[in-house]
Amino acid sequence: MARTRREASTRHPRHERRGEVRLPAVVATLTAIGLYLFLPEQLLVAPRYVLPALECLLLVPLVAINPTRLTRQTRAFRVLSLTLVGLIAVSNLVALVILVHELVSAGVKDGKSLLVAALQVWLTNVIVFGLAYWELDRGGPVSRTQLPRSALPLADFRFSQDENDDAIQEVADGASGTSDWVPTLVDYLYVSVTNSTAFSPTDTMPLSSRAKLLMSIQSVSALITSLLVIARAVSILH
User: Whole-model pTM?
Assistant: First the structure.
């Protein structure tokens, strides 16, 4: 166990400069695209395959630039990655607005279909905001592993590891200052999940104005989905 803690300062990607693994982000993105693809027809903002096809086209060059690990970044790469996340986020928020409108103004009878659609929108919300936090914090996944800490942009989020340096030894050994730890996609997805369920920050605090704005939008949309859409769908089922 002591050896494991001693190795904490050499086992993180920042030391190896290998970059974060690409696959989890690809899987998360394709999952969000797939969830939109199977939404009911009335919730789509364009013909069913138009937006998913466009999003896949944006994903292809991103994977081509960094097929296995995220180590290279250009201005075009940043624009493409942020555009992809923004496109998924906007289409999902529009689908949520349409879904709420359908519930309020129309006599919806297909409760099961409605409930499934609400869960699809909520889950896509979790994924896309997790991707957004991952893309924006400290300059993005490439910057976080390839740049020295002194060159990193200001942090958008403060994780618990960022303030554990003065904790007990077995906790401090995994802190950012000791092990050079940096968050990965899993950490941002966790932030997104907790923000969508607790409707507020838990152990990770937003620092920048844009992080606070994004978390506010996510919390409100998750609250609407949970309290209005799902509640309405359950009442229809009864």
Answer: 0.88
